Amino acid sequence: MTAATLTIDLEALCANWSTLDAKSAGDVKTAAVVKADGYGLDAAPIARALHKHGVRSFFVAVAEEGTKVREAVGNDADIYVFSGMMLTDAAHLKSHNLIPMLNAPKQLYQFRSECSGAPFGIQLDTGMNRLGMEAEEFIPNREVAQDAKLIISHLACADDPDHPQNAQQLEQFHAMTDGLNAPKSLAATGGTLLGADYHFDMCRPGVGLYGGAPFQNAFPVAHLDIPVIQSRTVRAGETVGYSAGWTATKDARVATLAAGYADGLIRAMGGNDVHLYAGDVACPLIGRVSMDLLTVDVSQLDDVPDTLSLLNSHQTVDMLADAAGTIGYEILTSLGNRYARRYIGE
Ligand SMILES: *Cc1c(COP(=O)(O)O)cnc(C)c1O
Question: Nearest to residue 29, comparing CAs of 150, 193, 203, 155?
């Protein structure tokens, strides 16, 4: 058995949800964003655990993703679809009772002709210019919006509390929706942390649930343990890996591990202060990241263990992301399908 093991801590996931939920006042709901297959961790066990924990509103990116979530949580939860309704989605939305966040007047008209009477939400653009109706598209439809189950917009810069665009988008959201009775939501993880002004009727965190920034105090949810295939002595002056990327300055013990960039361990993290842990002992990742292999300097260990840990309470997805020049979201959603997956707290 040489597959690495990805352990997903559902208790940490639920604890993170509760901590984020506690940031808003009691009558503000907290949803869970489970798009991209639960940020790469498998939306079925993720949604099931959160539902058991009391979550009743979920968000996915596209209608197809709603199928798995509906099967996982049963019928007493709302599942919203960020992409709204694309032409071929109507039957699927209806059969799985999914709520499209309609993003354009055209989607609204199509929805009303194909799914008349079914619940819908509306997504507004307040400055990100990605998804949602602009003010001039929305104003003629404000009357219809009274019947929306939820009206949302999304902040572009909420991971930076000092960014002036946060307040600008907040003001624009007010300008577009004040006076409407439909429930409103503006905050993802970052917005949830910006404070009560941003909470409206619902917060909808994603990445923070899975232990990622900008939620600094999150418990890590993904733990990755990688088997050691072999280890060898590398003499001073010898090199390790492709392009002879690392040179031993003194005799070293080097372990070769069974995971690589084909498993989502982004190649760019090589050589950038990443460690593999034997318990609390940090052993440097050395040389290039290969497709299926990593090399690690384990000279400081008395014995080479069967596995070394890449993701743990010492080294988070955000630390790997920094090393690879990306964000924790990409580390999580890149985690490969070759891992044996183990769920704690199911
Ligand atoms: C992805 C997404 C979220 C969740 O964002 P996080 O930063 O992961 O909390 C919320 N709302 C929308 C519209 C999104 O696309």
Answer: 203
Domain with CATH 3.20.20.10 in the chain: 31-210
Domain with residues 31-210, CATH architecture: Alpha-Beta Barrel (3.20)
Catalytic residue among 52, 106, 109, 242: 242
Quote the tokens at residue 202: 């619902």
The CA 257 to ligand 1 mean position distance, Å, reads: 34
Active site residue: 23, 29, 35, 68, which one? 35
Residue found under tokens 């492709």 = 242
CATH architecture of 222-344: Beta Barrel (2.40)
Does pTM top 0.90 for this prediction?
A: yes
- The CB of 121 under 6 Å from ligand 1? The reply is no
* Stretch(es) of the chain classified as CATH 2.40.37.10: 222-344
Q: What is the pLDDT of residues 248-274, one digit of tens each?
A: 999 999 999 999 999 999 999 998 999
Greatest extent of the chain over all pairs of C-alpha atoms, in Å: 76
- Annotated catalytic residue 35: yes
